[in-house]
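Fold it.
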Amino acid sequence: MGKRREERARREEEQRIKFEESKKKILARMNVEQEPKIVVRTAFVSVPRVASGHDLASDTPRTASVIPVAVTPKAPAADTFSRHQERMTWCITASDKVGEWSWGEPRKWADGEWKETIYPGMEMLAPLTWGEIESLNSGGSHRMHHEQDLGSIAPEAIQRWHEIGLGQFDTLFRFRIGGQKSHAWGYILQTHFFFVWWERLHKIYVSAEKDKDRQKRKKDRKKRENEKKLADAKAKKRR
């Protein structure tokens, strides 16, 4: 077990070093003093296609500052389209930065997080196709960036998702950026990623196995506390 942990730590350190090197190159050639509302490139393999009845701008929640994304709405049937050969584009027009989660984490990112982690991290992935992005892994079989069913995330996050007007999207997408616990959450329309949440503590989704371990630790801790109280009470009676 110790060797596996050391190997995982080594891989994560290598990824961190690679990320920092890429970040320096990106920051050296780009001005990120102001957060862009839209980050879109024109060098698509083909024009992003929008499923019938969808408009990229109108699907932004009411609480967001809306700047339309230039797209061509003419498209083939949705079941003939796959984004995996297309390059990823992204924006923050749908970002939810109001308030904080019950665990004390603010939804709004800090300027330093944007400049040092979020922007460089997303830009580092921008030259890749969606297929390439979804094939990246952390050194094993675990994918770094992937879809996530809405029903599998924390109940509080599900409720918030509906509150900000995104209930029609039952599949989210999660990017892992800058560390094992930090993620960019959002939804995809055709080839475009709408960045909704930035998280640092890995609380929006916790796997069933990790949740089971957490509940066991909580139960064991409670048991130890009760045993200590009982021992203290017995000791007090003997005095």
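Strands lie at 38-39, 89-91, 146-149, 171-176, 183-189, 192-199.
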